[in-house]
Amino acid sequence: MSRSTLENILEGCTSKLRKIEYCLSGEPTMNKELPEFISLTKKKYPDVKNLVLSNTDLMRTKYGFGYLIDLFDRGMDYIQTDLYDQESKDWFIDECKKNKDILKDRGIQIFDYYKVPFNLYSYGKKIKTIFF
């Protein structure tokens, strides 16, 4: 998706917009403009929840864990990760542990999606969340 496409989508939205999900038809982190998309959406609709669904492969192999933190700093509210192999899961958990103080300072919480009962689409709370 291009920036102009996103801008057209956002222009067509109403104040009732509650969330934007960056997913489907491919890995959202493959689009180099994703950080800017999140910033743009948050600027236009501050109360909209930005959700990214990612397999984290590009974070692990190319961008680094700092990319995830940057997405949160730009206005991402949730990331749901699909850690479909042990290598990905081990890397992600290790990075979360290494960066736990940074995550905590930014108010980012981490949940195991299958072990912690949490409503991913909760709109009332202003929290930042990582689900793995």
UniProtKB/TrEMBL annotation:
Alphabetized Gene3D superfamilies for the sequence: Aldolase class I (3.20.20.70)
InterPro entries, A to Z: Aldolase_TIM, rSAM_sf
Name of the protein described by the UniProt record: Radical SAM core domain-containing protein
Species this chain originates from: marine sediment metagenome
